[in-house]
Amino acid sequence: MKIRSLLAAVAAVFAVAQAPASAQMNWKLASAAQPGSPLLGFVEETVSKINSGSNGQIKVERLFIGSEQEIAQQIVRGRVEAAGISMAGIAPLIPEAGLLTTPYLWSGDAERDYVTDNHVLPVLRKIYEAKGVVLLKVSEVGWNDVACKKPCLSPNDVKGMKVRVGPAPSSKIFWSSVGVNGVQMPLSELFPALQSNLVEAADLPFPYYVTTPAAQSAPHYVTTRHLHHPSAFIINKRIWDGLNAEQRKVVMDAVPDTARMRKEVDASVKPKMDEFKAKGGFVHELTPAQRAEWSKLVIPNQEQMVKEAGGAAPELWAAIQKGKKEFAAKGGK
């Protein structure tokens, strides 16, 4: 009996020793972020911290996919486990997320952050999970502005122009409101389209724009600040549900803090703009009056976003409006 007990104990120890290798999870964390962008730094930091913090239980590899629509599909299908993806990019799959990119929705950073953190997130997390995705933390891409082959300082300058329109409703509504000749295409097709003059303008956040060929093909960057471009770190819900509490904490802690990501993206813009101008690029800073020429054409069409999104969009829109009123009642602080 003692020999049998000893053999059983040895077998148990051997099984435990073998468990980590057999139980290791191999993940891909997808992103369309380009080298030189703070967005890529956030992704790489997350990958590194999950790998080091999980004690070999989870091995993550960063995967570049140029189309965020493709990333969204791969996440839901479980072919990619996690991602850093913008809310505009995931909007074709989760239309309600696109409401956060409604043109001229926010008065500024303070209002946006307050409403998002206190009113939007609980509703948005529920919406994501219904589509098989868990929203870990809100990330940051920056404000979208207009990139153009010439100075496009007013809506009159782009009227009738061939412009890239993205798949998200926010892009369609913004550009249709100012009367362009829209050419719908995914982001991955934009850069050759600009180079070949298939389109003459697009809208992009500066931290991303300056890392792409668009900065050479469309060197006039105009600060319309027409929409904010939030992002999120997400994970397939089936994968998340299969993690234990300790593993979930490792993953959540690995994603940089939202406030920090916002601060770092914001701080990166001016130095990158200065560098861009030093290399021959143009940054056209619009005055409030110039920006109002754009916003007055777009704001009447904002609620079209809710109609196009459908689903739980009315609930999310109500949360946004409630938050905006609360922020205003607090004196805008």
What layout of secondary structure does this protein have?
Layout: H1 2-23, E1 25-31, H2 38-53, E2 58-64, H3 68-77, E3 82-86, H4 87-90, H5 109-130, E4 133-148, H6 155-158, E5 162-165, H7 169-177, E6 181-184, H8 187-195, E7 201-205, H9 206-209, H10 214-217, E8 220-236, H11 237-241, H12 245-254, H13 258-278, E9 282-284, H14 288-298, H15 304-309, H16 313-329
Parallel strand pairs: 1-2, 1-3, 5-6, 8-9
Antiparallel strand pairs: 3-8, 4-7, 4-8
Helix pairs in contact: 2-12, 5-16
What is the global morphology? Answer: globular
Biggest β-sheet strands, sense, barrel: 7 strands, mixed
Assembly type of the shown chains? single chain
User: How far is the N terminus from the C terminus?
Assistant: 74 Å
The H/E string reads HEHEHEHHEHEHEHEHHEHHHEHHH
Count of domains: 1
Number of strands: 9
What is the number of helical segments per DSSP (H or I, 4+ residues)?
A: 16
Taking all Cα atoms into account, the compactness measure Rg is: 22 Å
Q: What would CATH call the class? A: Alpha Beta
Write a structural description:
This protein is an alpha/beta fold and 333 residues long. The chain has a single domain, classed as Bacterial extracellular solute-binding protein, family 7 (D-Maltodextrin-Binding Protein, domain 2), CATH 3.40.190. It has 16 helices and nine strands. It has helices at residues 2-23, 38-53, 68-77, 87-90, 109-130, 155-158, 169-177, 187-195, 206-209, 214-217, 237-241, 245-254, 258-278, 288-298, 304-309, 313-329, and strands at residues 25-31, 58-64, 82-86, 133-148, 162-165, 181-184, 201-205, 220-236, 282-284. α2 runs antiparallel to α12 and α5 runs antiparallel to α16 (313-329). The radius of gyration is 22 Å and the shape is globular. The termini are far apart.
